[in-house]
Sequence to fold (142 residues):
Amino acid sequence: MRVIEKMVLLETVDRKWMDHLYAMDLLKDAIHLRSFAQQDPKVRYKIEGFEMFGEMWENFENEVAQLIMRVNPAQEMRVREKVEVKEAVQQDFDTQADKANAIGATAGEQHRAPIRNVGPKVRPNDPCPCGSGKKYKKCHGR
Fold:
């Protein structure tokens, strides 16, 4: 049951915090309108941001309580299996990343030659090398 509680708490906190950050971005974009109402936008941003945080926290507590009450302990075994599968996948991913880093380290030891332009440099007022007859700046220089 503790595992389920932790998962519910973390997922709910994550979702609520992301929603709060999105709402704060929207508030930041619209806060300049408060100056039309003869209010200081900085002060209003602080006040409204604090109120939004309080609402977010209240909603978080209510939602966590509702979700915990709806949890079926029989599902705990399925949740543990999912957690174990996630851990196994993460372990496999870490192993593959270590192999890739090892391969990248050996490939990084081989120095590559720098890329160099071999043709003459085309100036903006020179004729375009494509043969159109236009100046380079009017043809391919755009």
About this structure: Helices lie at 2-30, 41-70, 76-109. The longest helix spans residues 76-109.
